[in-house]
Amino acid sequence: MAEPTQSNVPSLRQRRLKISINVLVQIMALLALVVMANWLLSRHHPKRWDLTRSSYYKLSSKTAQVLAGLKDPLDIVVCIPTTSSRDFIEKALQDTRNLLKEFEYVGKGKVRVEFVDSQRDLNRARELVEKYHLDSPDQIIFASGTRHKLVKLDDTVDAEGGYMGSPRIRAFKGEGVFLSAIQSVTQAKPPKVYFLTGHGERDLDSSDESKGYSVLAGYIKRDNIVVEKWNWATKQSWPADAAAIVIAGPEKRLSEGEFSALGEYLKDGGRVMLLLDYRIQTGLEVFLDRYGIQVDDDLVVMPLLGMINVTAMGEEYARHPITEKLEGINTSFPYARSIRRKPESAAGAGERPDVTELVKTPDAFWGETDYKSQQIKFDTKADIRGPLSLAVAAETHKPGGVELDGMRLVVVGCSTFADNNNIRANEGNVDFFMNSLNWLLKREQQIAVSPKTPQEFRLDMTLRQARMVYALVIGGMPLAVALLGLTVWIRRRK
Questions:
Q1: pLDDT value at residue 91
Q2: Model confidence pLDDT, tens digit, residues 173-190
Q3: What share of the chain is helix, strand, coil (3-state, %, to 5)?
Q4: CA–CA separation, 257 vs 259, rounded Å?
Q5: What's the whole-model pTM score?
Q6: Which domains does the chain have, with CATH numbers?
């Protein structure tokens, strides 16, 4: 029998080649299966995760409800150059891009997002300018049907600095700003809220840090609410189209005609928010008795490092639509008076308001009744022991707790908490005011969207540590890879 020749015996090199090809084919087949499975899952069962440390891009339930309830398609066109020499613009655009991906995902086919580089795609940019009458190259367009609204990139951020360099983003307001734009183009006629004037109330147009309400007015308008002023003395009536009336920090007593008209307005199912400061007697203190609300003549204080702290902190919240999203969030009320439910309601039998104490201070606070004294200290006989209620909500119910389409009333023992300075300093104050207003308007689904604060991380190293890291990255890691490769090569040669 003849022995097999060397030519018909596969060489070791051929066998290795066949094994390598077989392994490569298996790997490619496995990768193809993974890609196909991922494509099928993303198409039929899409799922996204926000892996940022603070869920920075996670949408609030308010935004998710609005997007899920869209009836008509919504187009969002970001007409902004994709490159900028300023880090400030780059960061704002990056946040906008990531946030709109979440909008598109939650919108489930109703939301269509398009990014247009106005410097590169000139034809498309020209079409947008002609169609939507753009007046600057940094516009975000929200369009549905025949309605559209424009938002500037600067409106999505609250920035500070910029005098000696690029501004720093203090808060990203994109979700609230975009939601307001969506409501403007998809919802019916917006409600109208009137702020009373003529008694030294807070001014919506003033940018004064400690007295103005211009920042708050911006938040209200962003929530698709029309804001106007109203002087009852010159009109002698309330506006017929008022969805709610706000009386913010009056410094003078209201007239008897105003009290009578306000009572009739509430009796007919009106919605009112009262922000009452300490020391000032406006007559509303007595007026609120009929609704089972007691306004104390005190100043909420607590001892702090040998001094007296006059900024009351809201820490405990009632189970109520206004405060259900505020759990774990502090609110602050500088120079506040306590507002509480009367032990025995003085309301008439026909009104039967249900009064809820919304916000309470920690136990350390008390209501100082002798606040004009130079030496403030707790008096067990005259002062009011904490915890203290700082705000209440009242609404009309039938016997048995059945809700009526009746009056709604919110009373807060402070107007300072919503001024320009405090509304910027504490996002919880923004949420509390807007939640209260949306509850008055019976827009509970609109409650609570606050700006997101970017988290900054800083790595402090000494010069020696920095040099060690540089040597490790530039020299150490490449050297380690080279040694590993050399070791594998030598072992395979053996």
A1: 78
A2: 788 888 878 887 887 788
A3: 35, 25, 40
A4: 5
A5: 0.65
A6: 61-181 (3.40.30.10), 190-446 (3.40.50.880)
